[in-house]
Design goal:
globular; about 10% strand; 14 strands; seven-stranded mixed β-sheet; alpha/beta; three-stranded mixed β-sheet; about 725 residues
Length: about 725
Amino acid sequence: MGGIVDFFDSSHLFRAPTNEEHRDILLEIDYRDSRSSNTPLSERSSSMDTGYPDVMPGRSSSDSSSSTTPTPSRASSPLPFTLHSSSPSETESNSPLLGFGRYTSSGENRWIWRNLGSSSPRRRKRDGRRWRTFKSILRRIVRHPLFPRQPLTIILALLVFTVFAISLTLILLYVLNPDKEALPWRAYCTIPPTTSVPPHYRNALPYPYINPLPKVMPPSFPPDDLDTLPPAGLFLAVFSMDSSLERRMLIRTTWAAHPRSRNGAGEGDGGMGTSRTVVRFVIGQPRKGWERRIQLEMEMYNDLIILPCPENMNSGKSHAYFTWAASNAWVPPVYFNTTHPVPEFTYSNQYTPSPRLAPHDPYFAWKDSASGHPRPWVRPDYVAKVDDDAFVMLAELEARMRLELYATEQRPYGMPYTSPISASFRVEAPKAEPQTGAPADTSISSMVEQEMPRDRSADDPLVYWGYLVKEQFMAGELYGLSWSLVDWVSKDPSVKGLTKGAEDKQTAKWMGLHPRAAEIRWSSDHCWIYDHPRSGTVYSHGFLFPSEVSRVKKSVLAFLDKVSRNSSTGTTFPSNAAVGTYLAPLSLSHSSVSTFGTRYQQPLQEMDLAHSVEALVEGSHMSELQEGKSMDTERAWRTREGRITRYENKRVGGTVAVHFIKKHMWFLETALAFLEGDDFSQAELRNLNADEGRVNVGLASVWTDSSVFRPTNASAAS
């Protein structure tokens, strides 16, 4: 009917507005909206009380009443809602509740809540365009002729995609992994560091961090006067977890108590060197299911320390340990006289009654406790930590830390050095004017020695010992701090804000914040701390002994001498040049046992237990066996080196720690290689004319049964 729509409701006739009338109504609404901001509030409210818009301009009420439309018998219905579009600014400025809707009805106070929780129309339009673009691209890919549609092609496509994802992951791991080739451990053992200056205060070594060849090589370790020095007090904490009971038991029964770990090689020293070395296990708060088991273990062995923090690795456990140690770490005193007197430090006068001992505590501590009048314990010289996946030779560790107590300036023990600063300053007194009438022979002007007070803590050693990684920090598997550093770490407020993150790197940051950071001795040992040969890491090679290191030194230095003599310039080998410039890194990292990035395989398929352990020793005949070669396993076993030969008739001087022992089988292999074995092989016994009694090994723990060790004399071997 030409735009007329009839509605029948209770026998009443209604007419919807035409398009032209609809447009006029919208213009009237927009006009009223534009004037609403200038209309007084009273007038605005009175006009809105009716619920209808005013008459449009240009028309009178009579014009409106004289419309051709028949007048209904009741009030007209409100105009229908018109969902016309408007700009966001217009909607937001005119809406009583900002951004929720627009009043578009001329019949009653109604609001269309059409934008609730949604974005603007422009954003919806943009999002829709993106979604359509994505669907279009996806549709093109699916409709491509090469897109797999059959089950077989779909499986092959998934397989290719999986291979691509794995390859991409491996490539990224290789690119992001900083350890791409084995480190030159042969160079590390040949040229030890000649300075302990912190890396921040000297020229850092470039990769692969080989020390320059000095004019004068450092003295060999151990020095002849090692056992004349008083032993160092060492508190060593093994970082563990509540569930690692089996690993703790392995440590308790091996390197924490074994005579060859505490006494050293050969005859040993009867446990005198490690008489002040205490081993304890440190864990965080145990989980609920482990609380009772931990309590029983503490009651049984008395060697567990529970820190007041949740169990973690890089969230403050190390700082919590050093803070605990600053108040609760104690070690036995010196039980015997030595050639050199016991040094006096600021912490030397702190004592505590002798505590309850652990089964693997030093023999001298047990002997002193059995006397009925045990001596009080004192503060340790060092507080160290070690991971429970490391195997430590306690005598080797204590010997190296002992020398650090007596080293001066920033040079290794025994190297030439300038005289240390005196404990007092000598100043020259000002010359006084001679008094009138004083005797001529009266000495008015004289040199007066005045003793100036000085902080005694300046004489305490500042030592940060471990394996220096990339000239930045000591590796977390084993490092130690002298007592003064531990006490400072526990109290300094700036350190407490640096407890989260890789714990070994954080410890190095602490050392950089120390007021005397330049005086801290960063003492590193790159030769005798390494990873298990089965681990396949850049730090791994065979089990190392001093005899093999001597052969390595001889071959490397001979090669360097040959290079210097055959150089085209005819000059001698420069003292400050790195060995890596002349030797290929592959030759310096060669191992007769393991290969970097390759899973370890024993030399022969058929090898018994003793032979397979011997094959893990670096440079041994057993490690060099190959299938089809002339030398058989029995001959290689007979001609092996005994422990006396391997340690070159010295008590210490070998491996300090083997790290990355992730399996208990690896741990037991390490224990057999370093704690068991004969002092002399069968071939050595035939040529030995010395007294056989000198090879007996002393015991360092009162509860260790000597019958478990195999006899090491000629009669037993026969």
